[in-house]
């Protein structure tokens, strides 16, 4: 469980750096890629400890994985080509919303352990 606290602190740092880099826009997009990869790996690690979490956090993790897989399928199906006018939503707002939700999950897990 000590490792989960380290992952939570790393997630906080990467999230803050990403938000700060969005002042330059392009660097924020690159930082968002790093944040997303880190959060997916952290999510995979959390799956190994899921039996130690409350039912509420288990449900939150399930919702996170549904959102993440749905977003990934959006990219695989090239839906962005059909929704050119919504590129800001699909490239910035939606991924940051998922990242914020995952950060909320991690903070609630930290309170639990």
Topology summary:
Layout: H1 2-21, H2 26-48, H3 55-76, H4 79-82, H5 87-112
Helix pairs in contact: 1-2, 1-5, 2-5, 3-5
Order of helix and strand elements from N to C terminus: HHHHH
What sort of overall outline do the alpha carbons produce when their principal axes are compared?
Answer: globular
Number of helices: 5
What does the main sheet amount to? none
- Give the strand content: under 5%
Q: How would you describe this structure to a colleague?
A:
By secondary structure, the protein is mainly alpha-helical. The protein has helices at 2-21, 26-48, 55-76, 79-82, 87-112.
Summarize this structure briefly.
With 113 residues, the chain is mainly alpha-helical. It has helices spanning 2-21, 26-48, 55-76, 79-82, 87-112.
Relevant terms:
globular; 113 residues; 84% helix; single chain; mainly alpha
């Amino acid at each position: 469980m000590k490792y989960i606290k380290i992952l939570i602190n790393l997630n906080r740092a990467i999230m803050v750096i990403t938000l700060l880099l969005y002042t330059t826009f392009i660097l924020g997009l690159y930082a968002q890629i790093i944040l997303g990869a880190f959060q997916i790996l952290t999510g995979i690690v959390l799956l190994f400890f899921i039996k130690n979490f409350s039912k509420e956090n288990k449900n939150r993790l399930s919702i996170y994985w549904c959102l993440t897989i749905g977003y990934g399928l959006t990219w695989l199906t090239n839906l962005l080509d059909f929704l050119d006018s919504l590129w800001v939503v699909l490239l910035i707002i939606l991924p940051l919303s998922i990242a914020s939700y995952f950060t909320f999950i991690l903070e609630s897990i930290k309170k639990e352990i």
